[in-house]
């Protein structure tokens, strides 16, 4: 049974709001951690990571059924590479995600009685940070597509939250792994901020990570289909935003073996 496609403006709104909540969680919990545990960097990071992991899980559940819950341009464009999202829609997702993260940063600042916009002075760019962002992004994309390919997309909200929470600790960059959130965090001169001069290297590393992840996915899962890709991060309407050929491919797959793939788990 095919459900009605979700209108693009609804998906863009979901990506905007989800990205805003994500930035508010990351930055707001960073500010709270810094105030509640001053001078205890390890504890501050633990509090920030725990809040981000839990918040990301909830945010994906909230908005995923509408847009897929990407909140990340790298995820959207890798999805387009595999036919799960049209290039037009991936391009439309990008400004919604960036604007959402900036709005979330402003909201976090205001919630803690700070100026709405404060440009961060926290420099993070180094060779180690660049490598960390490449690895963090590769891992994030692999988690998402591995679950989609194996029909376990329902586990993605928990898995993505857990991965990001862990990557806060095993990467020296604290795993931004997302160009939109990188830009948003530039607008808060707090624990979770990043200086403007550090943003281009971070985004470059994240793009490189996305390219490498796409190559690894093709190597590990050569049979991945547009229908599989359309189910990331959260299964949502199978036809909304999908590349034109994917619907026919999915129909052909159904008639060939009679069993629905991951995209049949969609709800809307």
Supply database-style keywords.
268 residues; mainly alpha; 10 helices; 0% strand; disordered C terminus
Describe the structure.
The protein has 268 residues and is mainly alpha-helical. Helix content is 65%, strand content 0%. Helix 1 packs antiparallel against helix 2, helix 1 runs parallel beside helix 4 and helix 2 runs antiparallel to helix 6. The C terminus is likely disordered.
> What does the average pLDDT come to?
89
Shape, principal axes of CA atoms: globular
Query: Roughly what fraction of the amino acids lie in strands?
Result: under 5%
The radius of gyration over CA amounts to 18 Å
Helix count from the secondary structure assignment: 10
Largest sheet: none
Number of strands: 0
Low-confidence stretches: 238-268
Could you tell me how far the N terminus lies from the C terminus, measured between alpha carbons in angstroms?
12 Å
**Run of helices and strands:** HHHHHHHHHH
Give the structural class: mainly alpha
| Relative helix content | 55-70%
């Amino acid at each position: 049974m095919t459900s009605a496609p979700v209108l693009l403006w609804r998906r863009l709104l979901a990506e905007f709001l989800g990205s805003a909540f994500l930035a508010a969680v990351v930055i707001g919990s960073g500010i709270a951690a810094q105030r509640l545990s001053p001078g205890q960097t390890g504890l501050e990071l633990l509090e920030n990571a725990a809040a981000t992991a839990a918040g990301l899980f909830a945010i994906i559940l909230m908005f995923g059924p509408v847009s897929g819950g990407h909140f990340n341009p790298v995820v959207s464009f890798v999805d387009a590479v595999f036919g799960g999202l049209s290039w037009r829609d991936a391009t439309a997702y990008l400004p919604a995600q960036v604007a959402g993260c900036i709005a979330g940063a402003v909201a976090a600042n205001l919630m803690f009685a700070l100026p709405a916009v404060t440009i961060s002075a926290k420099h993070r760019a180094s060779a180690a940070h660049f490598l960390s962002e490449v690895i963090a992004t590769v891992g994030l994309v692999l988690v998402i597509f591995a679950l989609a390919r194996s029909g376990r997309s329902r586990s993605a909200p928990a898995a993505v939250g857990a991965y990001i929470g862990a990557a806060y600790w095993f990467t020296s960059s604290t795993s931004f792994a997302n160009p939109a959130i990188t830009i948003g965090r530039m607008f808060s001169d707090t624990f979770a901020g990043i200086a403007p001069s550090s943003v281009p290297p971070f985004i470059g590393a994240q793009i490189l990570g996305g390219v490498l992840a796409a190559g690894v996915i093709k190597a590990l899962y050569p049979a991945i289909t547009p229908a599989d890709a359309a189910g990331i991060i959260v299964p949502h309407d199978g036809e909304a935003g999908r590349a034109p050929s994917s619907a026919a491919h999915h129909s052909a797959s159904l008639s060939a073996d009679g069993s629905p793939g991951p995209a049949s788990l969609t709800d809307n």
